[in-house]
Amino acid sequence: MRYDLVIFDNDGVLVDSEPISNRHLAAYLTELGHATSYEDSIRDYMGSAMHRIHELVLERSGERLPADFDDVFHARVFAAFERELEAVAGVADVLEKLAADGVPYCVASSGSHARIRVGHRAAGIDRWFEDARIFSSEDVGRGKPAPDLFLYAAERMGVAPWRCVVVEDSPLGVQAANAAGMDVYGFTAMTPAAKLVGATQLFSDMGELLDLLV
Question: Which residues of the chain have pLDDT under 50?
Answer without folding.
Answer: none
